[in-house]
């Protein structure tokens, strides 16, 4: 029996209009499966893994993800007057902020993905989280300034309106959202993943008490050829 090393990611099919998969192994048999069907592929590997097999099979590097963790008792809490966390918000306002937030995601760095498709991918992700009630609104003096997206123990997304950036609000917003997230879900720790290029976010989460646990290199591949053609 041939093992299937490809995990479909249907949430990305709607954005890129091609089958999309996460490759679950660096084994040769897994990489060969990416040659046999059209699709866009993602694989996450240890930075110390030899990338030669990936390059030989047409994969290309797009990003390194830093994966920090914070225990609840280690969370540093900040309080800036006027900052609050709310589950009541206008959907359109959150999506407007999302539209201007994710200009440097890994799909924006993929030269095979048009920027408008990468934009759509992140917008759809935020929209899905709103539907699942996994978004907190970050409010300053009752005005929506940003959002915090989460799932289980994972901090997924953090976005702030350009009108509220560089005003010393991020630590207060994020620490309050993390505290609410852990308390409401009964969690003892939180995890997140941050692009190594996103220095501002790395510094923010380090200030909150998150500490590095692991890193992953991300490679993509686009195969528009399928067998039998």
Mind sketching the topology for me?
Blueprint: E1 6-8, H1 10-16, E2 20-23, H2 28-33, E3 39-45, H3 52-56, E4 60-71, E5 83-86, H4 91-99, H5 115-131, E6 135-140, E7 143-151, E8 154-160, H6 170-185, E9 189-192, E10 194-195, H7 199-208, E11 211-223
Helix pairs in contact: 1-5, 4-5, 6-7
Written overview of the protein:
The protein is α+β, with helices and mostly antiparallel strands. It folds into two domains: 6-64 and 216-223, no CATH class; 69-215, Gcn5-related N-acetyltransferase (GNAT) (Aminopeptidase), CATH 3.40.630.30. It is 31% helix and 31% strand. It contains seven helices and eleven strands. Strands 1, 2, 3, 4, 5, 6, 7, 8, 9, 10 and 11 form an eleven-stranded mixed sheet that branches. β2 (20-23), α2 and β3 form a beta-alpha-beta unit. α1 (10-16) crosses α5 and α6 (170-185) packs across α7 (199-208). The longest helix is centred in the middle third of the chain and has 17 residues, at 115-131. The radius of gyration is 19 Å and the shape is globular. The mean pLDDT is 93. It comes from Halobacillus andaensis. GO terms for molecular function: acyltransferase activity, transferring groups other than amino-acyl groups. InterPro entries: Acyl_CoA_acyltransferase, GNAT_dom. It holds the Pfam family Acetyltransf_1. This is N-acetyltransferase domain-containing protein.
């Amino acid at each position: 029996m041939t093992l299937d090393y490809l995990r479909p990611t249907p949430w990305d099919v709607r954005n890129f209009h091609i089958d999309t998969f996460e490759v679950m192994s660096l084994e040769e048999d897994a990489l060969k499966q990416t040659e046999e069907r059209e699709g866009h592929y993602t694989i996450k590997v240890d930075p110390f893994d030899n990338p030669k097999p990936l390059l030989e099979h047409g994969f290309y590097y797009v990003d390194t993800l830093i994966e920090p963790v914070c225990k609840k008792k280690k969370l540093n809490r900040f309080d800036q007057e006027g900052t609050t966390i709310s589950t009541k918000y206008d959907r359109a306002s959150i999506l407007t902020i999302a539209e201007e937030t994710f200009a440097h995601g890994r799909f924006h760095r993929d030269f095979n993905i048009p920027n408008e498709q990468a934009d759509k991918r992140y917008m759809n992700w935020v929209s899905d989280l709103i539907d699942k009630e996994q978004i907190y609104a970050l409010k300053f003096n009752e005005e929506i300034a940003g959002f915090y997206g989460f799932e289980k123990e994972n901090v997924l997304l953090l976005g702030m309106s350009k009108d509220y950036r560089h005003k010393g609000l991020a630590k207060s917003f994020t620490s309050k959202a993390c505290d609410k997230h852990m308390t409401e879900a009964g969690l003892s720790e939180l995890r997140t993943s941050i692009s190594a290029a996103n220095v501002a976010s790395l510094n923010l989460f380090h200030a909150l008490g998150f500490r590095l646990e692991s890193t992953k290199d991300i490679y993509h591949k686009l195969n528009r050829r399928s067998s039998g053609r």
